[in-house]
């Protein structure tokens, strides 16, 4: 059959070839290529973050995972169920942060399963020679609500200093 179309029963038409990409004179095969970044997401991921508990406009507690605050862990209620969401946010035309499609919402059971799996995940990362920081759940994280007054902040700092002093005394007694 001469002049037959490709594409079978669907009709598809003729198969088109790909256009050749022109190589720029400065292209170097050995040069590393940068990964694709989202628009407006040029922050430095190497800057260490100190977790801080805040409240969003809906009154939900959240912790930012990056300096821009566009990647968050949020604790919210939906249809009589509490959810822990890890999600990316975007800025609308009015300058408001809105939750995006990229992310996941975990029920408390799913969140507990994730936490129970943390040692296994850490073990798999260790096999790849990736070191992770283990949280100290007994430590005073200094998490503060964004709505706390300055007076409350000062009282909290005084209490933290007192706890530190007690811990030092207890440590000295143990020696």
From TrEMBL:
Compartments reported by the entry: Nucleus
Main localisation: nucleus
Bias-annotated ranges (Gly residues): 1-15
Family designation: Belongs to the transcriptional coactivator PC4 family.
Positions of the Transcriptional coactivator p15 (PC4) C-terminal domain: 66-116
Keywords, alphabetical: DNA-binding, Nucleus, Transcription, Transcription regulation
Stretches the record annotates as Disordered: 1-66, 139-175
InterPro entries: PC4_C (IPR003173), ssDNA-bd_transcriptional_reg (IPR009044), Sub1/Tcp4-like (IPR045125)
Classification via SUPFAM superfamilies: ssDNA-binding transcriptional regulator domain
Gene Ontology CC entries for this record: nucleus
Organism phylogeny: Eukaryota, Fungi, Dikarya, Ascomycota, Pezizomycotina
GO molecular function, one term: DNA binding
Name assigned to this protein: PC4-domain-containing protein
Organism: Clathrospora elynae
Pfam family, any one: PC4
Single GO biological process annotation from the record: positive regulation of transcription initiation by RNA polymerase II
Composition bias type Basic and acidic residues, residue spans: 139-156, 165-175
